[in-house]
């Protein structure tokens, strides 16, 4: 599984209707890795209320960024922590549980070869989080 930040989906304005314009994507994975990610979120974030740096998981390779998932009392979404490569995702318990449900179809071997899903609704926030085996949307 790869973790990558795409900071200008519009390609400098060439595709002005591109939505979202910024995203972090998890891609190039199999169903076993999705199950492992679900379990890490359940155990570390939901059960023990510990931040989870995704690239610390042995099956995730950080391409150009870090993302740490943190249990919070309000959904703040994903924001840049210190520079353009270090991100924090602050979500409520309900949002993490919804993420796990959204991941579920990708734990099925027959589903894992196509499709994508957004792991949360960013509303007015700037950065989306995408789960996509092939990396597209």
Q: In angstroms, what is the radius of gyration?
A: 14 Å
* Large-scale geometry: globular
Query: Which regions have little confidence, pLDDT < 50, spanning 5+ residues?
Result: none
Number of helices: 2
Question: What's the pLDDT, averaged over the residues?
Answer: 86
Helix content: 10-25%
Q: What's the end-to-end separation, in Å?
A: 16 Å
CATH topology: Gyrase A, domain 2
Description of the structure:
With 137 residues, the protein is of the alpha/beta class. It is 20% helix and 27% strand. The chain has a single domain (2-132), classed as Gyrase A, domain 2 (2-Layer Sandwich), CATH 3.30.1360. It has two helices and nine strands. The protein has a five-stranded mixed β-sheet, with no helix packed on it. Strands 3-5-7-6 form a four-stranded mixed β-sheet. A hairpin with a 5-residue loop joins strand 6 and strand 7 (86-91). Helix 1 (31-47) runs antiparallel to helix 2. The longest helix is centred in the first third of the chain and has 17 residues, at 31-47. The relative contact order is 0.22. The model has no long low-confidence stretch (mean pLDDT 86).
Features:
2 helices, 9 strands, Gyrase A, domain 2, 137 residues, alpha/beta, globular, five-stranded mixed β-sheet
Question: In a few lines, what is going on in this structure?
Answer:
This protein is α/β, with parallel strands linked by helices and 137 residues long.
